[in-house]
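Can anyone check this?
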Amino acid sequence: MTEPDRNSAPETAAMAVAPGTAPPAEAPWHLLDAGTVAARLGTSLEAGLDRAEAARRLARHGPNLLRAQPFRGPLSILLDQFADVMIGLLVAAAVVSGAIGEVVDTIAILAIVVLNAVVGFVQEYRAERALQALRTMAAPHATVVRDGHAASLPAAELVPGDVVLLEAGAIVPADLRLVEAPQLHIEEAALTGESVPVEKGTEALTEVGLPLGDRTNMAYAGTFVTRGRGRGVVVGTGMATELGRIADLLSAAEETPTPLQNRLARLGRQLSIIAVAACVVVFALGVLRGEPPVLMLLTAVSLAVAAVPEALPAVVTIGLALGAQRMVRRNALIRRLPAVETLGSVTVICSDKTGTLTENRMRAEAFLLDDEGRRHAAVPAAAGADARPEPWRSLLQAMALCNDADAKGEGADAVGDPTEVALALAAREAGLERPVLEARAPRIAELPFDPERKCMTTLHRVAEGDGGGVVAFTKGAPERVIGLCTARLTEAGPAPMDAARLLAEADRMAADGLRVLAFARRDWPALPDPVAPGTVERDLTFLGLVGLMDPPRPEAAQAVAECRSAGITPVMITGDHPLTARAIGARVGILEHGDARVLTGRDMARLGPEALAQEVGRVRVYARVDPEQKIAIVEALQRQGEVVAMTGDGVNDAPALKRADIGVAMGRTGTDVSREASDMVLLDDNFASIVAAVREGRRIYDNIRKFVQFVLAGNLGEFLVLLVAPLLGLPIPLLPIHILWVNLVTDGMPGLALAVEPEEKGIMRRPPRPPGESIFARGLGVRILWIGVLIGALSLGTQAFALANGSHWQTMVFTTLVFCQLFQAMAIRTERESVFAAGIGSNRAMLGAVLAGAALQLAVVYVPFLNGVMRTQPLTALELAFCVAVPSLVFFAIEIEKWLVRRGVLRYGAPAPAR
């Protein structure tokens, strides 16, 4: 594994080596010429290594494989599910219940614990496969020159100094310094994020700190050869490759607990302290008063069961799962359930450009046909393909004919180089089909694209009916093609041209983020001889400039605007060129000012951690960044207190996806590695789907808060009943089976119904909640207290009334408590708006849950078999009416409180205004 530090580590500063001077001894490979590379590695560029030397190097460097990281086994993952404080508290309650003979309680509680563990196990086991997917990207075989002969060998046997042959369709098996690269194009999107295949060369470069995407004489392991052929010397294998460096980053990246996990853990700790303290105090006071110890132990267990919301973990998990199902309908597939809620906390979305904010296909966006600066956004309409005046007609013909993209059948998508596909589609949209044109002007010769010439030319025989002869169409880099032209084509024919002004216009188009190509033509009476650049590519007539771009998705700008209105900062991080990044950022609204700074990976290499921490608060677009820098951006934002969602599709994105609070991978174009490292997968690769998922996440968190209020207020009421009744000299009002019935059945069904409550008005016009905000913030804690006290008081009042009248007092207290919870569930569906305004039937699940809860309670009271199991007695009609009328006060009290909040009489605090 050759010299990983020198060639893999990011440069700390941009340096340059003057042409004609020797690079330093420890220079990166891209600075060295081919001869120096061969000498340093002790190999021959023609014959490669001999087999004996290759075997020695394999023993020294090891196989060309990514190092296997230690994975957590299934048992370890399963045991981790029981490390949660809330789960531990439930297990303790189950043990105590079993010890005193309450077998039903024990079974019910343990069933919830097992359900929780199974869901968590499945999610985490899948996440552990991320590195496994990374290892599968290595090429299984490679064509290697050894002892002067080419042979196919397992890629794992490659060693530094081997000479590897590349051809179209091959996966690059190791990091290579290229020594031959005729027409070689390699797709490096998985490593750099750049959507267009990179044209490769062999000349030594002069700048030390070049990003990977600009190291054109290098080929990196795991990338894909799309065109041409090549020969390269292996300079890095296994973990010494760029792919290996990313594997190291991925294994080192730590997942951060979600805000919900932190809040529930804190809640579990608080409840455990309250439960233990209350049990000890009540048990001690009872024994001191002379009560039987067994009775007081039963009371203490009842208090513990009342204090612990047994249904909370299950309802939260199921609620998140239901939210995940809804998100699938919005093209967002959730891989880790807590991520559903975390989306509602997101303050910054770091998005990739290609395919997420853009369409992931090149398109002709601008046309310039003269030297007067008149730029056209589209081809003008015409009655027919030949009805357009010159130079439009010739330009469109050149775009279609000087093109190797393949269109299979009418309306089918073109296949080939993305730039040529875009040109072919633009010509087709203008009515010029390449098969039709080639039937009239078949290609008879060509000069393929050459990196040194920076252009290509095709020659076509023109039908006699169209004038006969031969026409040559040339396209390429503007500085090259314009230099070959002596005139420009106008509607009236050839006219003088101002080359300097045309080149200036080409530069302006490039500054707008467009990839600019120039087109020209020359007419010949017959095929020139020889067909060579010096003969064919001179004295050309300029036709026009075409600017191409992967354009923004139509919905991207609206999604960015919605982010801003919700207080979320959109940030673009791309491996593409800074000019392209700036142009897209401005068009979708991420850059609000034309002079906003774009920070490049080279700029970041000069910044220390403190300077970067200051920059991330201002910079909205990053370009040409490497994997470590993506992690650095995420961590700097997190240190500023931001909750970060990070999107990506390549291998290079995986470490940052894992480190972010929410990692979002692409479903269509993403790699297995990025998907396995993510929390969420976008099925349509669309930025707007992230915003829709954030909306859903906010709705889910709102509903979780409502459920926490619902269950804790009810549990507080139960707790107060059990705590205060003995102090007032009243008998123990509820048995553990009653408490468990309320917490699991009566709480559980409305809790699930709250999980599907529709979103409240203005949900995306408020800022994200602070990551450290307590779940009890914004009045929730106050509501829990007063509602819980009200439920407790009504239940104790019912007990006192029933005892005074000699009725079925314990069943009446039990029934009153149940109906208090059902009325509370109906009332807390909205935080500010009246339930009557929202519509009693707007959440049919809640209406059904309340009716089902009431029916089950009536069954418990009136079915003889259940009387024995639940230790209840049938109530008279008057007693039942009392047990329904008194709890209705809870509903009307909550409605009055919301009315006071709307009137401004009560103020519980609100999030800060959106940024």
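Reply from J.R.: I decoded it. The longest strand covers residues 515-524.
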